[in-house]
Each structure stands twice: as structure tokens, then as C-alpha cells.
Amino acid sequence: MNYLPSILSTVVFLPLLGTVLVVALPSREKNLLRAVALLTSLATFAASLNLWFAFDPAASGFQAVERFWWLWVFGVQVDYHLGVDGISLLLVLLTTFITPVVILSSWHAIEDKVKGYHACFLVLETAMLGTFLALDMVLFYIFWEAMLLPMYFIIGVWGGPRRLYATIKFVLFTMAGSVLMLAALIWLAISFKQFTGNPTLTFNLLEFYATDFLRPGTAQSLMFLAFTLAFAIKVPMFPFHTWLPDAHVEAPTAGSVILAGVLLKMGTYGLLRFAIPLFPHALHQFAPAICILALVGIVYGALVAMVQPDLKKLVAYSSVSHLGFVVLGLFVLNDFGLRGAIYQMLNHGLSTGLLFLAVGVVYERRHTRQIEDFGGLARVMPMFAVGFMIATLSSIGLPGLNGFWGEFPILLGAFAARPVFGIIAATGVILGAVYMLWMFRRVMFGPLTRPENEVLRDLSPREIAVFVPMIVVMFWMGLFPKPFFDVMEKSVAEVLARHEQRLGQAEVPRLEIQAVLDSLAPARKN
Amino acid sequence: MHSVSYLQYIPLFPLLGALLCAVLGPRLKPAAVGALATVMVGASFAVSVAAFFEVRSGHQALQTVLYTWNALGGLTVDVGFLFDQLSAVMALVVTGVSTLIHLYSIGYIAHDRSPWRFFSYLNLFVFSMALLILGNNLLVMFVGWEGVGLCSYLLIGFWYDGWMKEPGGQRGMANSVAGMKAFVVNRIGDFGFLLAIFLIVVTFLPKVADGRVLDFAVLRALMEGGIPSGIGLGIITTICLLLFVGATGKSAQLPLYVWLPDAMAGPTPVSALIHAATMVTAGVYMVARMSFFYIQSPTAQLVVAGVGAATALFAATIGLVQRDIKKVLAYSTVSQLGYMFIGVGMCAYSAGVFHLTTHAFFKALLFLGAGSVIHGMHEEQDIYRMGGLKKYMPLTYWTFLVATIAIAGIWPFAGFFSKDEILWQAFNYHNEVFPEAGRVIWAVGLTGALLTAFYMFRLVALTFWGPERFHEVLHGKHPHESPWTMTLPLTVLAVLSFGAGWLAMPHIWGPNLFHHWLEPAVAALPPVGGHHSGPGLEWGLMILSMGIAGLGIASAMGFYRQDAPLPTRMKAAFPGLYRVLYQKYYVDELYDTAVIRPLVSVSRGFLWKFFDVNVIDGTVNGLASAVRLCGMALRRLQTGLVHTYAYFIVLGALAFVFYVMMMLSKGL
Amino acid sequence: MSWLPELQHYVLLATALFFIGLIGVLTRRNAIVIFMSIELMLNAANLCFVAFSRYLGSPVGHLFSFMVMVVAACEVAVGLAIIVLIFRERRSVNVDDVNIMRW
Amino acid sequence: MGAESFFFYLFGVIVLAGALGVVVMSNPVYSAISLVLCFFALAGEYVLLHAHFVAAAQVLVYAGAIMVLFLFVIMLMNPTPADAREAGGSALLGWLLGGLFFAAIFVALITARLPGSLPVRSEVSGYFGSVEQIGAELFTRYLWPFETAGVILLVGIVGVVVLARLHRKEG
């Protein structure tokens, strides 16, 4: 299959078109609004499938590139420039896949200001897709910031009791980072201009990739740190994670799902797209420190998740732990780690998304998220128990489900880079089982102690329609991961090759594990 | 290696069965679901038998590769199955015993709320177990490894809203907690397994062209002529030890055995199948499978055999005083698994795997017999409330007795052959790091054998012999014998427990068929020179171990035969010792106090409530407050009076002028 | 320094005028007087414009002074209207009485 | 000391005196009259600088229209006699600050000595500063600012009208 003409623009702006339609429709036709939003997102998903089938894993660089001039003023050149590679392709698909699911999931949950709600989600989808596909850094920045606005409203208008606190915290944290990123971005473009002697100030990512224009030094380090901080807040990495539990707890279910499922990935995607390829020397210098933060995040998130009394907070802290894995995978800088990290992004989107959906299901019925209010639900909600169980198992990385092929390569990559990283990170696997299964036991197993839980309905057909696609994809990705990994292969290899080339072979860390282990174990007697 | 196209059906039949049971099960009668599940496992057994004969006739391993699972970083992993002599033994044992236990379960679970769920889990377990033993590489094995852990979790917590009953009658641990404990402890073991996989990949990947470094065949070929150059013994030892960490978790060895006694919360067929016959032996299988590593590392051998011996003795002592019939059997299982590790640890793989096989028969039989007793006793598990059941449940009694004699190690029952082979190998074992290891382990093993005979006959005596103590709990009802679907498997297993031993006769009597069969599949230590032991010694040792077993049996019978006051006297004489043993050395309490509670309280009190809320959020909110305070202070400047603003304008202009004049005076 | 009026004399005169206006703004409390002081300052600027215009022989300074007058006219019109309103409200034109923009 | 010098110093003294009068008179009416005096003298200075048109505009616009406006408002308010709070500590501060600033600038200007003298009177053509020249400039090269000035005036008018109506509505 070939790429359809202007396929990327179609994918990005189809939801925006849907927004226009939603806005034009009368507010009282709630089901019509929902249907339009759902159909739009489904159409977007269908369009994005063209990307999957047309994508050529063997080709290097970006595909389906669209580029035309957009803003050329005062010697500043900002292009409308989209393109897809093996890294962004999967994230685009994740986005277009999850959006219809969340729209379907909030069919009955949202009865108030239905029009605005769906408009927000569709705008959000456009912003997310644009972020993943933009190849001009200013365009990226615009989409990046545009994402904040609908999310601000989704949490702030349709959220829980402390929604204002949560949404302002969310926006301020993100803004704090992105302001630094904007500064670094301009600095980067100016450095590029000075290096090449271009008459105009360009923000073209591809040219930045192609040119080795940054000398090692403070400037590069500062830019790297600014970018990394912006993305680390978004991820969120320890210790910038405290906005996440609050945002998740207050957000409506669909907001949580999209937040965990896609928005957090924008942080890790940004790390991979900008922080890692553009600043080789600074990366080399800071990668171990970032890995250590990621490790702290893995263990810390797991431990704190373990003791949460609130279901959503628990899942939110588990996200901190899981995204610690992703960041670790990114910064160990080998093929295992990078590809595993990308896969883990998808996994986390699916499994945590499904967990939030599951929490939403019980919340809609009981209007509480406290674990102690539940217990023994498996008896009254057997189908839900199965779905919830699969989400839980996926989240703890059971092989055969998707989670395994994220965690395993990351751990392997970490171990290959520095064994101690792999060892510490692997404890996160144990802790993951502890907190997820403990939570599952307290919610689903045990006797039904509360009379109000005895009358809970099992999943409705609509909820089954929400759960089943997620579960099917989880199994698919667990059993047949190779096509996904093949798609990423070339793009990841380019990142690594460029890094090594810029850095110079001498500086690439070599494996010294053998000597260490030999010194630990007693020598063989002859 | 011979490629065939049917190996995948061994796991796939049970998987299909699991799906069918889950989907159709709720609409079918319990017996029909059970029959469906049994047939599926039976089909799997049939395929295994066919494969077995093909291996036997072709003298080479079979392999089926379905598809390439994943490839990255130079590493390639297939979804493929290997059916060599070792897998054949495991596959036959697993699918065979599973079929019998499925059959048994039809009667056992018939009155449950959701038999379909039970059979679905059980079939899923057989699927995972088949993956574990048939996987042709470590990752497929790992899938099975985790899969059986999951099924174990699901089945231990099958009655998820119930509790275990303590012998005194009070509530014990919740079933779902027991399941979780099993899964989490297993995960600790998996941690070691994973690290071992990583180390193998990192070490051997550069030496493998096509990236299939996790394939057993590839690894074995690499290790064929000793450790490849450039790789230190330290790495091999580390790999072995890490793998063994995984084995201790799965096979309930010290210090990770704690989950297995609590796993008795599951239905009894589950205990028989998973927690006695098959899953818990996965660690033993894995060590045998990785034999090519273990033969290189004396340190690893020592650790494996040593831990096995320690566990064998340790668990046996706990088993002496337990009152719950299933708990006694659980500790017995832990102890017997210790014997298997003694065997495989000392590179006597055929001995270890043979004990695995016979143990699968007699321990499954013991558990099924216990299940029959519990069934007949209307869910009573306290052996102090039984007694005299021989009269009411003859078939159960006789088969149980066969298994007990077998485990006690009395000639000519199967347990004698397998245990004696292990002890014999221990006696002859020579370790470079610790030369006396063989003798020490042999002595420990022999002591364990004494205790085994004692506690098993204690169990028989209290359950089937002596006065009837059950009247107060049964309220006038009588224990009853179980239906044929339950007793038929008992009979078959009794026959196997009796006769299977002849497959591996001591070499002074005849050919060790089992050893010959396994030889191509496992690595062997190079023969040690100057270490001969004649047939006289072997005869002597055999008679010694028979005598030890007889001593144990005799003393147990003496203690418990006629409700003698001796046990009570012993209990009164050594109250501290009795309590320590009865409370299982307080290991659970130790773990709880030393690990779980500190971890939870630190997480809650320090990490969450203090660090997250106060330090991180405190910093952020502190920054916000600082900004706010500055704003409050600067706000005072906004007096609203025109003159204030005017003064500030003038001051600003003045400052500017002075600045300009300064620059001018500097000669700008 | 000759007595003949030169550029510097005009500039000095404008400076003096400006500062008298400034002092008026700073010291007076009557809003109308403050306005008049501001007019003084504007005129000082105008004087400078015109003087420099003469010195450079260019009429642009004149044009600027017209602009200043335009602005001054508008300012006076609007400002005085506001003062009238405030006076109606508070019966006072003392600027110290008007601090509704406080904090 | 020629006629030009004489008029320069004469008008200069009047300007400064008028300005001082504005600032020091306690009665706003006197201040306003003093301001008119100042403006007239300024117009004289403009004449000395060959800015005839500006001088005329100064008289018409400032001394005429604007000052009339001031006087109207003062009358309208029926001014209270000198406020007791007029003089005080802050007034002293104002004098000090303003004086300091003035001294600084004054010293700077004197020591800096601006270059060049003004072109001699006879050398200036009659065209300079005339209505023709100003008009030609305003309607050609500076048309845009000129029109803008018109718009500003319009906005001012509208603003004043709105303010007036606001008051009426409230009343």
C-alpha cells in the first residue's frame, strides 16, 4: 500500500474538523455529539492505519513528509513540516487507537457540557498527533503547548472536587519546563544559524540532525538540560512527578486514560526526538545521572504506589515507576533499551489506560475510589474481574502479554550498559507484582463485606466494547511483537549510529562486566 | 535435531481447553466441563507419547519452531519447542499426572459454584507447564515459568472469598493472600532468573552468529568443550547461582520456600498437581536443563546441593509436628524437592530427575488421598480429629499407604530407588571447593530420610489408624469413600508409585534405564579418577538407608499407634522446641517483621507522607509561596497615590541619567 | 560663553522650565495645578524641538511640536473630564483623596 | 547685547517667572493666569527662533483654547481656597529631588557645551518656519503622522463625550 496524499495532515487535522462539526451542532443533542466525536476519532484511526500499512521499515529517515513555508518573517523561517518515522508511527497509532476508546468510555460518565467535552478531546487529539509528527521545532512547540489548553479544561471543568488545584498544578509544572525548552530551542536555532551562516533562522529538525553543529561545552549542556527538564516534567520523572497523582485523581476517567496513555508519552518521545539526538556530548555526560534518577523513580514509584489508599493514585504512582523504565531504556543508549523503551511507551499506554478505565468502571458504580470500600467484587462482576486482571498482569509485565516485551529489553539493555542498573531496575519488577496484586486482591478478592457492593452490575455491552479492543491489542503485542520492533529498527539504529559518530568511538562505554564478576567469584582450581 | 510439526499441540490442546472451558463452561454441566478439560489434557498426553516414541526410535531430539518471536539488538528469540529425552520425561509426567488429576477433579469439584473456572485455570496451567518444559529457549521457558506462577496464583486463590482453617478451627490466612504470597515470592525468584538471562545474553551474544543465544541447543554447543575462551568461570558461576535463585523461588527451597505451605489454601487437586507433582519441580528441571553450565562450576554445585540438603532437613523437622494433613504433605514436598536439588546439584541429573518422577507419582497420590480424606471428612483437615479412617475409606487407605511406604524409601517401592540413588551419588560426590561436601550432604540426607519416614507414618497413624476422633466434628455423620473418578487415579498412581522404581535400578543390580535414557540430554561431570567404591559399599549403604527408614517407621508407629501418651509427653518435655517447630521456626514472622513491615511503613511514612508530600510538593509549593510573598510585599508600592508613582518615575529617570553620565565620564 | 543666545541657552531655558514643571507635579496636591505643571513640561520639550529645528535648519522639529500640542490638547480634554467626574464624586480635586487604585 | 539677546532674556525671565508662578501660587486661578503669561512669553521665544507658525499655534491653541478649558474647569469647581495639606514634608522632598535632578542636568549641560552656534538671522530664508513650508511638509512627507494626529484628536473627543455621558447617566 502506498501513502495516501497528504495523509499526515489528514490524520492531524481530521479531529479538528470534527471539532468544528461538534461545535456547530446544537448542545442538547448529546448522543449526536458523542456519535460525531466517536466517528471522527474512528475515521482518524482508519486514516492512521494507512500509515501502518504504507510504512516502509527498510527505508531510513522520515516518510510521507509534507513541507511548505508557513511563517517567514524577520528572517525567521518556520515551516509546516510533518513526517513520520518508526518512532512516531507507533505513537501516532497509539493516539488514534486510544482516543475512540476514551470517547466511548465516557458515553454515560459525562452528562454536563457534552459539547465542550468532546470538542476538547478532539482538539487534544490534533495537538497530540501534531506533536508526534512535527519536524519543525517551532511547530512542535506550538502543538506541545496547544495540548495544554484542552487538557486544562478537561481536568478543570469535568474533574473531581480539587480539580482547580490539580489542573493549575498540571499546567504550571508543564509550563515551567516548556518555557525553558522554548529558550533552549531558540538558542539552538541561533547556534545553528551561526554555524552554517544561513541568512535565516530555521528550526528544521532534519537539518539539525544532519549537521554536527554543537561543540561540546557549557552551552550544549545547558540546552540539553533545558530540553530534558521540560520533557522530564512531562514524563514525569522523579522528582518532578507530584503533579501526576493529583492530575490523575481529579481528572475524569477519560482524561486520566488519555493523560496516562498518550500525554506522558510526549515527554519520553521528546527525550528521544530532541534531547538524545541533538546533544551527543551533553548526553554522554548526563546519561548516567538521568539513569540513576530513573532508577530512583522505578523503585520510589513502586514503593509509594504500594501504600496508596486511592485506586487512581496507586495507578498514577505506578505510572511513575513504569515511565522510570522507559527513561532508563532511553538513556542506556543501546538497541535493547531504546526499542524496549518505545515499546514500553505503547504498553504503558494500553495497560495503564485499561487500568484507569477499570477504575472508572467501579467509580461510576460506587462513586468512590478508596480501595477499602471494595472487596470481593470478583463475585458480582466476573467479566470485569477478567478484564481488570488482564490489565493488571499486563502492567506487571507477564510474558505473553505486551508488558513483557517492554520491560525485558529495557532491563536487558540496562544490564548490558551497567549491570547494577539492570539489577536495581529488576527489583521494580518484583515490587510491581507486589503493589498491583495487592491492590487487585483488596478490590476483587476476599468476601463481599459491603452491602452496596453486592448489587453492582457487571460490564455493560458498551464497556465490553471499550475493554475488548484494548485486551486484544495487549495479547497481540505480547505474542507477535516482532512487526512492531521491526518498524522501529531503522530509526533507532540511526539515532544510535549518529550518537556514536558524533561522540567518537573512543568515548562509547565498553562492557567491563567480566572482570568485575571474575573478581567476585572464586577462581577455578586445577 | 529433527524438525517435526506437531510439538505445539502439546501446549495448544490445553490452551484450547482453557478457552473452551472459559467460554462454553458456564453453560455446560460440571461433569461435561471436566470431561472436556480431561480430554484436552489427555490429547496432550497422547501427543507426548507419540513424540516420546519418535525420540526413542530416532535417538535424537525433536524440535518445532513456530515463528520468530522477536529480534532486537542482535538477539533473536523464536517461539519454538524442543522435545529431547529430558523434556520427554517431564512431558510424560506432567501430562500424564495432569490427566489423572483432571479426572480426579471431576468428582472433587462437582459441587463447586464454578467448576468451569477451575478447569479453565487447570488447563491453562497445563498449557504453561508444557511451555516451560518444551520451550527450546530460555524465554519461552520463562513464559511458562511465569505462566505457571500465574495459574498457581489463580488456583491458590480459587476460593477467593475464603480463608484457610487453622487446626484449632480459627481463621487462618485468606486464600487470596496465600495466592499473592506465592506469586510475589516466585517473582523474587524470577528476578534471579531474569538476571541470569541478561548475563547469558551479554556474555554469549558476541559468540553467536544468528542471535539465538537463548536456545538451549546453541548454548549447549557453546559449552560443549568447556567454558569458551574469554569468559571467566566467575561469570558461569554467577549465571548458575542466579538461575538457582529462580529455582529456589519456584521449587520452594530455602529461603524462598515460605509460599508453598500457604499454597495449600487451594483446592486439593491443585495442591497435588501444581504444588507437589509438576510446577514445583520446574526448578529441578531447569537446573537439569542448564546442566552444561552447572558441571563447570563447583561453587554452584555446592550451593545447589547444600541448599537442597538444608531444605530437606529443615522442612522435615517442621513436618514432624504439623496438624493439618495438607501442611504435613506440603513440608514433605519442600523436603523432597531438597533431595532433588541434592541430586541435580551434584550433577547426578538422572538421579534428581528420577526422584522428581517418582515423587510426582507418590506425592500426587498422597495429596489426592488427602483430598479424598478431606472430601470424606467433610472438609476437616486436622489429623488430630481423624483416626481410624481405614475402616471407612479402604481404597484411599491402601493407596495412601503405598505412597507413604514409597516416600519413606522402603524397597521395592519407587521412592527407595530414587532416594537411594541420590544418597549414593552424594556419598561418591567430589567437590573441588569443599571436598567433604558429598559426605556431609549424604549424612544430612540420611537424617532427612529418618525424619521423612517418621512424619509420614505419624500421618498415616493419626489419620487411618487408632481410635476414631472425628465424631465431634462430623456430628454423627460418617466418613465415606469417594466416587470412582477419584479413586481410579489413586489406583493408577499407586501402581506407578510401586513399580516405577525399576526403571532406575542401582547399577549393581541391573541396567539403569532411566540414566541411559537421559544421558544424551544432560551434561555429565568428567569422571573423577581415584575415587572408587565397590559394590560392597553400595550394598552397605543401601541396607543402612533401609534400616534408617525402618527406624523412622517403627518409632512413628510406636509413638502414635495406640494413642500412646508418648507424643504428649514429648510435647510437654520440650515445649520450646515443639513451639518453634510448630510455628515453622517463625520464618514467616521474621520476614514479616524484617522486610514487609519496614518496607510498607517506610513507603507510607517516609517516602509518601514525608518525601512526596513535604519535600517535593513542599518545595514546589514553597516556591509558589515565595513568589506570593514577594508579590504581597511589592504590592505595598501600589499606593494608588499619583505622587508615589511620580516620585518613582523621577527616581528612575534620575538613576538613568546618572548611569548615562557615568558612562560619559568614562569616556564613551 | 557669549551673551548671544545660542542653542545651549535655549536648551538651558527649556531645562529650567521642565524642572519647574516637574517640581510642580511633585509638590502640588491640586490635580488641576498638576495638570498645568505637566503642560509646562510639555512646553519645555516643545522649546527644545523648535530650538534644534532652528539649529539644524529643518522644519521637522516644528512638526513634532504640533504633535505634542495635539497630544496635550487631548490629554487636557480627557484629563479635565476625569477630574470633573472625580470632583463630582468626592467633592475634592486633591490627588491624595484619590487612591482607589491602591493594591 | 543686541535686540535678539535682549528679547531672549526678557522672554526667558517671563517664562520662568510664569512657570514658577504656576507652581507656587496657592490659588489655581492665579496659577492659570500665570501659565498664560508663561505661554505668551514662550511664543515670543518661538518667534526669536523663526518659528512663526508654531508661535501662532502656541498662542491660539495653548494660551487660547487649552487655558480657557482650564479656567472653565476651575470655575466649574468653585475652587476651595488653599488646601491645608498643600505644603508638607513631601513637598519639601519634591523640591529637593527636583532641584537635585535639575542641578545635575544643568551642570552636565554647561560642562558638556553643545557645539555650534545658531545660524545667523540674516542667513535664514523667509521660507523657514513659514506656513507654506510647514503645510507642504505636513501634507506630503508627514501626511501619515498628520492624519494620525487627527485620529488622536477624534479619539480624545469621543472619550470626553463618553465621560460626559457617563456622568449624566449616573446622575
Which helices and strands occur, and which strands form pairs?
The complex is a heterotetramer of chains A (526), B (668), C (103) and D (171).
Chain B: E1 2-3, H1 9-24, H2 30-58, E2 62-72, E3 75-83, H3 85-108, H4 115-134, H5 138-156, E4 163-165, E5 171-174, H6 175-204, H7 216-222, H8 233-250, H9 259-262, H10 268-277, H11 282-289, H12 291-294, H13 298-319, H14 325-345, H15 349-376, H16 394-408, H17 414-428, H18 437-464, H19 471-474, H20 484-499, H21 513-518, H22 535-560, H23 566-573, H24 575-582, H25 587-635, H26 642-665
Parallel strand pairs in B: 1-2
Antiparallel strand pairs in B: 2-3, 4-5
Helix pairs in contact in B: 1-2, 1-4, 2-3, 2-4, 3-4, 3-10, 3-15, 3-20, 4-5, 5-6, 5-10, 6-8, 8-11, 8-13, 10-15, 13-14, 13-18, 14-15, 14-17, 14-18, 15-16, 15-17, 15-20, 16-18, 16-20, 17-18, 18-22
Chain C: H1 7-27, H2 31-56, H3 60-90
Chain D: H1 3-24, H2 28-48, H3 52-76, H4 89-112, H5 131-139, H6 143-170
Helix pairs in contact in D: 1-2, 2-3
Question: What structural keywords apply?
Answer:
heterotetramer, A: 526 residues, mainly alpha, three-stranded mixed beta sheet, 20 helices, 73% helix, globular, D: 171 residues, Four Helix Bundle (Hemerythrin (Met), subunit A)
